[in-house]
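Pilot study result, target chain (455 residues):
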Amino acid sequence: MTVSLARTADGAPDYFIAAVEDITARGQMEESLRLAQNVAQTHSHQLEAVFESIADGMYVYDRDGKLIQTNTAAQAINPQTTDQQYLTTPFEERINSLELRDAHGQPLAVDDLPIRRVLRGETLRGERAMDTIMRQPNGHDLLLNTTGAPVRDAQGTAQGAVIVTRDVTERRRLECQTQEALTALAAIAESLVAPPADEAALRPTEGDAATQTATADGLFPAREVAHHLVELTIRMLGCARGSIVTVDARTDLLRPVVVVGLAAEEEQRWRAATAQTRLRNYLTPRLTRRLRAGETLVLDARRPPMDKLLHPYGVRALLMLPMRLGERLVGCLALDYGGAEHEPTPEELTLAGAAARLAALVVEREQLLREREEALANALALREANRRMDEFLGIASHELRTPLTILKANLQLAQRQAQRLTTETTQHNTEHAELRAQVKRLALLLERSAAASGR
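Predicted structure:
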């Protein structure tokens, strides 16, 4: 700073004015710097908040693959990222500990890892995003959908990378289950509308009626279809057990159809107990009316009367879904969660309701096929009885025709002899005239009877 001894118009030295201006400029610069620091700090906090609020795991790497920052979601996916010793481990050793594989379970080479590809300058997003399987320290596998982009300097050179991973394990599991459920439900629905596998076996043919009925019994394996349907339902809903029973409209008696989730001995006991039970033994009149009206019942199995009926199975939460055709109750689909407390979601109730409607169709088709088989068997039995009667009459006619012919011939011979006897008899044998007349009348009577029998 140059100090001048000159004075201004008001008498102030020039050096004083310069000093004041210098101090003012410095204050303005410091204020601007302070404001800039505040703005930068605010932006930093905002970015930190955004970084932490993202539900996906975020990893920031330098150009050498060193992990320099992660968010809370990333630490939940890989808890080792909070361990300083893990962070100082060489890259390849650290990656190998995760046992990274592709979506098909095949090991990934180091150069094919998402971080390596991004550090080479690739951007992974959309169709280029990668699905990888990572082994957690607890031994569980996670399916991760990974995206990423390089961090470039002013010259466009990659100086680091940002990797984003999303845990899609549960979503993919649900997608697979949903696809499996749709495929299975479509197959069951198709089997309901398809004709029996061997339509010809249901047509009446010559042969024993019992044999035809036994053949027809295998045409529509309703129990097998129902078993598959219950298996699918309990797998989708995470239930412990499931069963289907039908309800007789007249007697209210239950008929066991299928149960899934019980051992063989327990199933036998369940069938024996269910076959002797009426619907009103399980439910109060109010609950029965609700079930018949088409309402799904979410019940606490620890309350009477089900506490005694279901005690051997340790059931707590129970679903009873009506199987209805129109307004008619044909059965029930029962699902339970064992000893666990569970409040079914609306989605679960919708799926279970769809399964109950399909189960009603399975049961109804089985009944219709059984009635059809019985009708065909009765028609076949009637046809067989008529055929045997015709055969008997034919045999009887044949067997009777021969002796009647012989009898008729002998009668004709006897008649001729009686005629000749009458002709040769003279008045000298008047004592035998009456006897000969009687023989002639008897021969004529027998001839008429034989002729009538022959017809």
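One observation from the pilot: DSSP finds 14 helices and eleven strands in the chain. A full batch analysis is planned for the follow-on phase.
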